[in-house]
Write a structure and sequence with these properties.
It is built from eleven helices and 21 strands. Strand 11 and strand 12 form a beta hairpin.
């Protein structure tokens, strides 16, 4: 998606907020069911006609795409796994999907990247819901936002990047030592942003630096976080350092559901306009699997998709103005930090994004055993010849050395590390007492 298209869809999302999403957050339960049923019926008919996977699946399980109760019909459809989508990727997509959609890649939290496509209309809905979330924190159009995520400068590039149209500045999360943050502080105090946005781990480093060095940003009104579990210390650190509150957000590149935190800060609201979310029980009575169906993605519908993340607490209402239900929290990934040679810290999440965009890689694992060094384990797609291995591993070493300034190892022969329970962890931090 080019920049002009991105801006255009974002503006349409703001229009969608003003015309519908601003009102819909206070809809009655009957209004919610009516709207979800309408959108789900449309999705069923489209998937049956245009998506090979569902044409066969609906016949096999006797799904009535014209049912007057599509929400009940939904429960007859088997739960979909990430492994199924990876193995049969083309069967989930409309014809010519790449030219008719927005392309995303998962952040690779399981070490197994996945490409997903979303229709333009769905992306408009997404932008409208994000705008609604930000408005609840007091954001106004073109308020200045300092962003600590989604920027990985190459060798010789500046440590920050300015988006003048949106009025945002991106800062490198791979350069978070004291010297780098000191340069960020000079810029921030002159620029006077209204909001911070970033990975929780990166925001925590900024707040800790402010508390250690006694600087603040009186212009700040709040902070937005996503992509990681919020550490216990972050909210207090942001409040102590800047007197602001955190507004957390949850979503995935698979485009199935979204949750957000309101000004009550007592849980995560489901955005019912975005998708149907089911909470299925686990062995722990207070923890539930998050199963989701996006209601607007006609490019690559994922119906009853197992997100792999867990909800803490069952559905409950909130004291705020919103009628949508909430859960207590999302139990997902809480990563350790990467450690540089000078023992400064950085978030590893941008590395997941890097690997998710490499089609040649089936699975990866990152292991850190010494300060300033990182071992990268790669399993490639297809037959791995010596030349193929050399080309890809050399490219990865070169790219990551440039991005992270770490010494990168990429051994040819290895075994992925697993826990004693057999669980796979994408990033393994083995520096003793590092965190």
């Amino acid at each position: 998606m080019n920049r002009l298209q991105d801006y255009s869809l974002t503006l349409k999302g703001i229009w969608k907020y003003s015309r519908f999403l601003k009102r819909s957050q206070s809809f009655s339960n009957d209004e919610i069911i009516t709207n979800q049923s309408k959108w789900l019926s449309r999705l069923f008919i489209h998937a049956h006609k245009n998506i090979p996977w569902y044409s066969a699946l609906f016949r096999e399980h006797g799904i009535d795409v014209n049912s007057v109760n599509p929400l009940q019909e939904l429960k007859k459809i088997p739960i979909l796994t990430k492994e199924q989508v990876r193995a049969h990727h083309a069967d989930f997509c409309i014809s010519g999907v790449a030219k008719r959609s927005v392309k995303f890649s998962t952040s690779g939290t399981t070490g197994e990247p996945l490409t997903a496509y979303t229709s333009f209309n769905q992306w408009i809905i997404e932008q409208g819901i994000i705008w609604r979330h930000w408005k609840s924190a007091g954001y106004n159009f073109r308020d200045r936002i300092a962003i600590f995520r989604s920027y990985s400068p190459k060798e010789g590039d500046p440590l920050l990047k300015v988006d003048r149209l949106r009025n945002w500045t991106y800062f490198s999360v791979f350069d978070m030592n004291d010297d780098a943050i000191n340069s960020y502080v000079k810029y921030l105090q002159k620029w006077k942003p209204k909001f911070l946005r970033g990975y929780p781990s990166a925001l925590n480093l900024i707040a800790e630096h402010a508390l250690r060095n006694g600087w603040t940003l009186p212009s700040l009104k709040g902070a937005f976080s996503a992509s990681e579990v919020v550490p216990d210390t972050l909210r207090k650190n942001l409040n102590d350092a800047f007197g602001i509150e955190l507004f957390d957000h949850y979503g995935q590149a698979e485009i199935t559901c979204m949750f957000h935190e309101c000004e009550d800060h007592s849980g995560m609201h489901v955005n019912w306009e975005y998708g149907v979310v089911e909470l299925l029980p686990t062995a722990d009575k207070d923890v539930f699997k998050i199963i989701a169906t996006n209601l607007h993605n006609l490019s690559m519908p994922l119906i009853r998709y197992d997100t792999g993340d867990l909800a803490v607490g069952n559905w409950e209402s909130c004291n705020c103005i919103r009628s949508s239900l909430k859960i207590k929290a999302i139990r997902g990934r809480q990563d350790d930090y990467l450690y540089m040679s000078d023992q400064s810290r950085a978030s590893p999440v941008n590395l997941y994004t890097y690997f998710s965009k490499l089609d040649e890689i089936q699975q990866f694992q990152l292991i850190q055993e010494k300060f300033g060094e990182l071992t990268v384990l790669l399993r490639l797609n297809g037959v791995t010849t010596d030349q193929k291995w050399s080309d890809i591993s050399c490219r990865v070493i070169q790219d990551l050395t440039s991005k992270t300034h770490l010494a990168i190892r990429c051994p040819r022969h290895f075994n992925f590390l697993q826990s004693s329970e057999g669980k796979f962890q994408t990033f393994v931090q083995r520096i003793k007492n590092a965190n």
